[in-house]
Amino acid sequence: MLVIQNNGQTTVVSGWRAWLLLAGLVIGSIAGLILAAFFLVGAALIIGILLLVAIPVGVALSLYSRWRGQRAHGDQNSRLPPYENR
Length: 86
Description:
Radius of gyration: 32 Å
Largest sheet: 2 strands, antiparallel
Distance between the termini: 86 Å
Strand content: 5-15%
Strand order of the largest sheet: 1-2
Number of helices: 1
Low-confidence stretches: none
Order of helices and strands: EEH
Oligomer: single chain
């Protein structure tokens, strides 16, 4: 038996209608939880893949820029700043 109160009015649902309403609520809740789980797993996969790609690319770019920066300045014994040494 289900008792629903809305704006001071009480509605009683009993018998097979109550079972049907409860079954619908349970199925809807399970479907919502499954949908939320799919979204969370998808977000976790996307973030994981981005990190697996972004970290090595960042390391490679930093190593390249460090190597490029050491070559770009030429003679390290010069007293001029690097932008005037080109």
